[in-house]
Amino acid sequence: MGGEKRILKYLMLKDSVQVTDLTLEFELEKSEVEDAIKKINSSFKKDVIFYQRDGVYMTENSKMLCYKTLLKGEKLFSHYEFRERYYLLIIVLAVENKYLSLLELADICLVSKNTILNDLKCMKRDISKKGIEIDYSRKHGYSIKGSEFTIRNILVSAVKNILHSQAGRILLEENSLIKESEIFRLRKRLERLETRIGFRLTDEQLDELPYIIQLVLRRAKKFNQSWSFKIEKYDIKNTIEFPEIQKMFWDFDYLSQSDLLYLSLQVLASNMVESALEITDGDQVAIAAEEFLQNIETNLVMKIHRRNELKEKILLHVRPAIYRNLLGFQINNPLTEEFLSQYQEIYEVVKKSVTPFQKITQKELSKEEIVYLSMIVLGLIYETEETEAIYKAVVLCQSGTSISKLLLVNLKSMFPEIYFIGAYSVRQFEQNNLDVDFIFTTVPVKHKTSTFIIPPILDKQDRLELKERVQCEMLGNNDKMVQSVMRAIKPYISEQHIETVYKKVGDLLSNPYTSSSNEDLNNEKKLFRFSIDNISIINEEISWEQLVDISMKPLLRRKSVTEAYIEETKKAFYANYDKMIIAQNVYLPHFSPENGVNRMDFQVLVFKNPTFTPNGEKVSIVVALAPSVTNEHVPTLIKLNNIFSDEKTLAQIINEKSIFVTENILNEKGAEQNCEL
């Protein structure tokens, strides 16, 4: 078997060779080479050496099989090329929690001390660019130092490069860096993980990951130190995949939370971690966030107050969202279905507006991610200029950040006179000892402060009852109410009368008759009620140039807008009509309300003979809008977005001949879909 073994070793260290290479190398006839290959294959009762069209090669699996059986642990390598030595040095230094002498490193890499010294100089120069250094001690030797996250990244990269070299697995085995039995166990766990979380690893990933994981585990065990890394801010712990990946390592009790997070990244996206970090921290996301806000403003015809503040909120969420999207993580949002049941219209508007983010990842954002963004947008829709808050409050919640975010959004919109410090766990609140007037909580707490226990999602009845309870508490706090009223009227009172007025206001507010009816409490934003005057069915053909004048004419007749507003709308619409779209073939000519809007108004025009835009798009419906400065038009516009986005309803309106039926569709659909924002 001596001749066959020599041929086998030669092939194991090559990618692929020609039969002529073997005949020259071993001074054999072609037939003798072919016989040797057949003999080796027959000993396994299957092909471990593949011979096609004079080309001879082995797979990495077959090389390892031959190494374990025919070579029986006999050393395969007599030397390593520079590339293999370079990556082997990184791996050894990264997984050994000790200094290694020059002689030890030279023995591992099968070269002289001078050669290994030159190799170390090259490696030191390269990895210093990543902030990693080779620490040298004359007494002890060499060690690798730097950020744990970066060291693990270069370790993973080195393992991949070794695996892509010839007989890389055997190289790791010969240096006692891996155990094949552990590789087999990790591979089986990865296969089971695929079934549990419904994702698919490529064949290459399934081959490489057990080696990567085993060496990362080895470093984690040997160093066993507390560490954290940048990815923690990207909220991987709340994804669907993380708990399942965590279970995969149930018997590795030395792993920290950071270790498990890092292993999760390797399992799902080991080759994209650094590039994803670079994208999410760059200007690209900030630019996309600005475009997203512009889309929201365009789709809802509104101006966003405190724009920079909102942009920061968007970025805080969307950076991790894009990161998760790039890496293939699915966020776990327990409120998704409940949110959609109440705020479907908001969701649809946001879904239309997230294109800038999806261009970055070249993937669609998941429903759960869009719901998170919708929660943020929900808070801005009715937000007006800030008024000075009289009361302070806090939200306590133990069910996760998604519920906290939604509660804050809802409560801030319901109680503008209350300043909400933030959302906390009960433990955080007790530790911080915050001074507040009200506590809104989803879990029972004992506290001397006025406390309201509320459900995570507030429906219409919940909101009405909560408003009544809070208002009663406010009215019971006479001092606060007097301060509030006096703050508002003080500029209009002469100095000598302030004390008298203060007393009179106090007496008045202490009178128990002061109350609010349910109707007053239910001051939710109202939907616009369409009458037949707000609907036009146009049978004659209209030219593109006439479109805005025809659409705006009823608004002008009702004195909702001025001629100046129509002129400004014409300029804006004809220059940017491709952005003033509600749904397919449905256009929304409008301009800023400060330029001639007397009152909010709508006119829906259905064209039986559609006109066409300059780029050939059909115009079937036009919604002429006179927007409100205070965004009162937004709920109705959201409703119309939803109505016209439904293909069946859109077709029904386009084909309907009766203006009364169209009126019913617009109003009844609105009632059905009112999200009670």
TrEMBL record:
InterPro entries listed in its UniProt record: Ascorbate-PTS_EIIA_comp, Mga_HTH, PRD, PRD_sf, PTrfase/Anion_transptr, PTS_EIIA_type-2_dom, PTS_EIIB-like_sf, PTS_EIIB_2
Domain (PTS EIIA type-2): residue spans on this chain: 528-669
MF annotations from Gene Ontology: kinase activity; protein-N(PI)-phosphohistidine-sugar phosphotransferase activity
GO cellular component labels: cytoplasm
CDD domains: PTS_IIB_bgl_like
Domain PRD: 280-387
Keywords linked to the UniProt accession: Activator, Cytoplasm, Kinase, Phosphoprotein, Phosphotransferase system, Transferase, Transport
Protein name, UniProt field: Ascorbate-specific PTS system EIIA component
Gene Ontology biological-process entries: phosphoenolpyruvate-dependent sugar phosphotransferase system; regulation of DNA-templated transcription
Function: The phosphoenolpyruvate-dependent sugar phosphotransferase system (sugar PTS), a major carbohydrate active transport system, catalyzes the phosphorylation of incoming sugar substrates concomitantly with their translocation across the cell membrane. The enzyme II UlaABC PTS system is involved in ascorbate transport.
